[in-house]
Amino acid sequence: MTEPLLLAAAPVATFSGPRLLTRASGFLFERDERLFLVTSRHVLIDEPSQHVPDRIEVEFHVDPKDLTRSFLLSVLLYREGKADWRQARDAGGEIDVAAIEIERSALPDTADFRAFTPAHLQAALDEVEVGTPLLVVGFPLGFHDNVHHLPVVRQAAIASSFGVRFQGQGYFLTDARTHRGTSGAAVVMRAAHDEPLPGGLPWKLLGVHSGRLDMTPRDVEQDETLGLNCAWYADVLMSLTQPRVGEATAQPAQKQGPAADRGQ
Question: pTM for the complete prediction?
Answer without folding.
Answer: 0.88
